[in-house]
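Fold this sequence, please.
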Amino acid sequence: MCALSQENKVRLVETGEFHGITEYDVAGVDAFTVDDMLPLFTARTYVSDEGITLPYRIYLPDGFRPDGTFPLFLMLHGGGLRGRDNVLQLTGGDMALKYALLRRQKKERCVIVIPQCPAGAGVFWSQSMTWDGQDYFVNITDDNESPVIRALIGLVDNLCDELKPDGNRLYIGGWSMGGMGQYDLLYRRPALFAAAFIGCAASDVTVADVVARTPVFLMHGDADVTVKVEGSRRMAAALAALGADYRYVEWPGRGHGFILDSTELDEMLDWIFSKTKT
């Protein structure tokens, strides 16, 4: 089993127990690791019609029934967690978001799905992910839909057929490469998700009119040197001009891999889960 490094372990503030997980107070920070998470997430694999294999982990809440009443949250990881071991995507800087979703089960039970992007040169959630010598961003067009993004769409469709979650409460979130993939997904399937959280990612604003069809919570640190904050600023401005339902939070002094605390995560998730397709 792999364990998280000290800097990637989660800080927790509440006490009590739920679903076999112990929440630790501030004196017990750094206690929750991927080894605690593995038993909670069943390992599965999806293979697309084009032969793309997507390992994924799935959490089904207590009392789950395929009756159309449970929301589903899809998490897309960043570039450093690609592979095929079906474990690495449970780690990383967004560990706190995973734990916040588990902690939220006390308030609102939901299915959590965390797929793993294949590894390889030039393989990302979005094939349109581009490096221009200074910054990463996605330049999405009708002609550059990739087999990986089609496999991801197929996985979501497959899970909706099997698990029958509440189709008006499908949510998506993630950082960096995962945020780039979200822009691609929101463009390809603009009517699919009720809301999205996109952290530390950038897209060409020519797709803003399509992205605006989904409520979006954007977040970026102004000290990010991997994906420059200007990308999120431009998208936020474009969404504002369109009158879109969005929020943008910019954190001063934070870089690419910053970790949200529990209050920040709860505020973001409250906004996300308040959205329902009508």
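The longest helix spans residues 147-163. The radius of gyration is 17 Å.
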